[in-house]
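User: quick one, sequence for these tokens?
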């Protein structure tokens, strides 16, 4: 029975890099499908507005007219 380090010694560097490329490519495809899934559009729309959530809302009540004195 081959030990894990013996299996790695048989695999070439190119094969390890190739397997890494396949794993990253599959992760990319999975992430792309997750992002463009139509079920998540409402959640992503809410997330797009999060940076603006901390801004104070403008006050709808008009300020009373104030008069200034011209005296020093």
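Assistant:
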């Amino acid at each position: 029975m081959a030990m894990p380090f013996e299996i790695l010694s048989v695999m070439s560097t190119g094969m390890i890099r190739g397997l890494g490329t396949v794993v990253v490519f599959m992760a990319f495809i999975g992430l792309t499908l997750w992002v463009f899934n139509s079920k998540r559009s409402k959640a992503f729309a809410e997330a797009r507005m999060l940076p603006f959530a901390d801004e104070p809302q403008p006050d709808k009540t008009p300020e009373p007219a104030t008069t200034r004195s011209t005296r020093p």
